[in-house]
Amino acid sequence: MSDFSLELNEDQLQIQKWVHDFSEQVIRPAAHEWDEREETPWPIIEEAAKVGIYSFDFITQCFFDEAGLLMPIANEELAWGDAGIGLAILGTTLGLAGIAANGTPEQLMEWGPQCFGTPEKIQMAAFAVSEPDAGSDVSSLRTRAVYDEAKDEWVLNGTKTWITNGGIADIHVVVASVDPDLKSRGQASFIVPPGTPGISQGQKFSKMGIRASHTAEVVLDDCRVPGSCLLGGKERLDEKLARAREGKRSTSQAAMATFEASRPSVGAQALGIARAAYEYSLDYAKERKAFGRAIIENQGIAFKIADMKTRIDASRLLVWRAAWMGRNGKKFEAGEGSMSKLFAGETAVWVTEQAIQIMGGYGYIREHPVERWHRDSKIYTIFEGTSEIQRLIIARAVSGVYIP
User: Fold this and answer.
1) pTM assigned to the model
2) How many domains are contained in the chain?
């Protein structure tokens, strides 16, 4: 087990600089264009693959960092460059996390590299949970998976929505109900391999922010996948269902296992946006003159800057603590993963709003990036569990009381 430390080692510092330089030199100059186009930035992803950032090897290195900090560090730096392009690069890791959290080591080694492909042939993955009538309430999923024993295949039917990389991904990790009576305890995760008939893209969504990241519906119509594509395997699923039917406690749920692992990294993305807005508005405040002096010399501006910096650093502490706990097997006794995502997400919204206020009219126009950062920030209080859901998780954890 790694000791918790805020002092990054040499390897972590080198990787932080490597990803930051890529964000500064490749992502930032292209951010405005791809936000306007609202398209997947394939050329940027290709560049990330060439240098090794978009790769199974790099993400595995981050996952297995003893301190658990490399993944949030990489997420923060990419989102500092641009959240939309960063998500286009990072979206595949959510599908990979679904495989790692619910699959066997053999399944991870088989499918993990295929999530990314190669620099010559890039592939993508998607994690499909949310549905039109089941967003935060994952216990109400209607997508069904029925086992065809004669063919050793699972037949998937349903519609998923708000899916990052949905429909354009080569590999979809789909959470479906195998026993609706058991609600969330009757769910399982499945890999839908590339080229599988019966899976298609539905509506692509036009969004307020993170517009370079593809978000769409995924439609499953008698989509058949081999029995080997059930993450964790049939024997483990049968044992889990049997325990649930007997009323015994379940150790994990298909969707929640993935979200628990990903929340600190999502918080780190929000942190990257907040840091970008803080740095930009600080530079502006030091250079902008009004009434004969730099506006940073006014307490009204200086105090905003101080509060922005304080909230950003507090967010990072929460994110790093949760990431370290997750990597070192520490149980989240008080909803620490949710705390990190909640506080960092709301900090990003607040900081970007303050950045606009500091810049006045200049902050409101697209000539400057702070309006884009503000639009991008809002999703971090919504996806992968709204702020309200995070508060519910934390309240349940600290009180021991089931709060509906």
Assistant:
1) 0.94
2) 3
Q: What is the pLDDT of residue 290?
A: 93
d(CA 212, CA 45): 11
Question: Pick from 91, 78, 87: which is nearest to 276 by CA?
Answer: 78
273 shares a domain with 294? yes
Q: At what angle do helices 387-399 and 336-359 cross, to 10 degrees?
A: 140
Q: Does residue 104 carry a pLDDT above 60? A: yes
Q: For residues 237 and 232, what is the distance between their CA atoms, to the nearest angstrom?
A: 7
What's the CATH code of the domain at 167? 2.40.110.10
Query: 């639009």: which residue's tokens?
Result: 375
- Give Cα 168 to chain centroid, integer Å: 17
Query: Hey, CA dihedral for 173, 131, 215, 84, is it positive or negative?
Result: negative
Domain that holds residue 201: 125-245
The one-character DSSP state at 248 is: P
Give the pLDDT band of residue 403 (cuts 50, 70, 90): confident
Rounded Cα–Cα distance for residues 379 and 401 (Å): 29
Q: 277 and 157 in one domain? A: no
Residue among 133, 132, 128 nearest 145 (CA): 128
pLDDT value at residue 168: 98
Whole-number pLDDT of residue 329: 87
Of 348, 334, 212, 209, the residue nearest 267 (C-alpha): 348
**84 vs 31, 175, 267, CA distance in Å?**
8, 25, 15
Note whether 131 and 158 are within 8 A (CB).
yes
Distance between CA atoms of 231 and 191, rounded to whole angstroms? 7
* Residue 220 shares a structural domain with residue 264: no
Q: What are phi and psi of 352, to 5 degrees?
A: -65, -35
Is 110 annotated as catalytic?
A: no
Active-site entry in 39, 217, 384, 388: 384
List of residues 6+ apart from 227 with CB closer than 8 A? 147, 152, 153, 154, 234
**Which residues lie below 8 Å from residue 163, measured CB to CB, with a gap of 6+?**
126, 127, 128, 130, 215, 216, 217, 218
- pLDDT over 70 percentage in the chain: 96
